[in-house]
Design a protein that fits this description.
By secondary structure, the chain is of the alpha+beta class. 58% of the residues lie in helices and 12% in strands. The termini are far apart.
């Protein structure tokens, strides 16, 4: 049997994969795919969002949001409201509101399973450490292929914040 890779990256990848599988299973029970719950939760919080607002909040491209909203509308969970000009707003239906509440219950259940046998102070510490890791990784890397001692080495440098701003 292979030795388990004990690096932090391998462990984080494994935990994320297991968590994602559990989340997908729970979402599947209520007819959703991973990612769709995010739109429902955003709309539960904000009531009404434009497609571009959803794309920005989800950090995805507008065509991705269009596809997700179309699928949710087919399930009668959201409805589109055509506004003036070409702006389309999206809101939850009554069924969508119920589903958003159900998602909250499922996430509570998943949190309990994830943190089973944890003491309260360990749970708080884990959340704090995960926030720190998220902050550290939030800066997208710029990969530069730099030949080092062997041809497979890569140098990764942080992308300056000024490079992240898109011009209109």
């Amino acid at each position: 049997m292979k030795k388990f890779n004990k690096s932090l990256s391998a462990q984080l990848t494994n935990v994320a994969k297991l968590h994602r599988m559990q989340a997908a299973s729970l979402l599947g029970r209520i007819g959703l795919y991973p990612g769709q719950e995010k739109i429902l939760k955003i709309l539960a919080k904000h009531s009404l969002c434009t497609m571009s607002m959803l794309a920005e909040l989800l950090d995805v491209r507008p065509p991705t949001v269009t596809k997700m909203v179309t699928r949710l509308a087919a399930q009668k969970l959201v409805q589109r409201d055509k506004g003036l000009s070409r702006i389309t707003a999206v809101r939850l239906t009554k069924l969508g509101e119920e589903r958003a509440k159900e998602i909250s219950r499922l996430w509570d259940k998943l949190d309990k399973k994830t943190l089973k046998n944890f003491r309260r102070r360990d749970e708080k510490k884990l959340k704090k450490l995960l926030r720190k890791i998220s902050k550290n990784l939030a800066k997208p890397p710029r990969t530069t292929i730099t030949p080092a001692n062997d041809e497979t080495a890569f140098e990764i440098e942080a992308l300056p914040a000024s490079d992240l701003k898109m011009s209109a």
